[in-house]
Amino acid sequence: MINPNSYIEAKEYFIQKVLVQAEKENIQLSRAQKYMLQWSEADPTFHIDQTLNAEFEREITTAEYEKKISKLIIRAYNNDRETNKATKDKYQQAYKALKSEDNYLFILVDKAIGRHFNKVGLFFGSYPVSGNYLLYAIFFGILFLFDMSVTIGTLLSHPPLTADKIKDSLPDLFKGLLLGSLVLFNILKYRRYKKEKF
Description:
By secondary structure, this protein is an all-alpha fold. The chain folds into 2 domains: 111 residues, no CATH class; 68 residues. It contains 8 helices and no strands. 20% of the residues are buried. About 5% of the residues have low confidence.
C-alpha cells in the first residue's frame, strides 16, 4: 500500500518502476536521465545539479526523453496489470500521492497512464487487455445495428415519411448515435493501446 499523503514514497515507487522496466528491456538510462526523474523545484530534498542539467541537454531532447520514459511506464503498468490485476490500486494510490506536489515525474506518469485513473462513466474506461476493446466494440456494434434496423424499419414501414414520425423517432435515433459513438471510441482505444504496447 502507498500512503496517499506520502509524495516521497510515491515518487520512489514510480522511479523504481522505470528503472526496473529499463533493466528488463536493456534500455540504457544515463546518470543525467536518472537525475531528471527526481527533478522538482518544490521538493526540498532535491538539489539542482547544473552539470547534470548540461549533460542531459547534450544527450537527448526533452520530447525524446518524455517519450522514452512514458513508454517504460506504460509497459511496466501493462505488465503488472497482466500478472496481477490488483496492482492497479497501488498505481492509483501512488499517482494521487505524486500529484500532490509539483514535480517533473508526475508529468511523465500522467502522460503515460493518467487516463487510467481519470475515467468518465462506466464504459469509458481502460482495460488491461487489448482484446477487451474489440469485445466492447462488437457488443456495442450489435446493439447499434439492431437499434438502427428497428428504428429505420419502423419509419419506412408506414409511408409516407412525415416530420412527426421523424420527431417521434428522435430518442431512438439518439440512442443509435450514442451506441455508434461507443463503437468508435473502443476501436480508437484499441488502436491506441496497440500502438503504445509495441
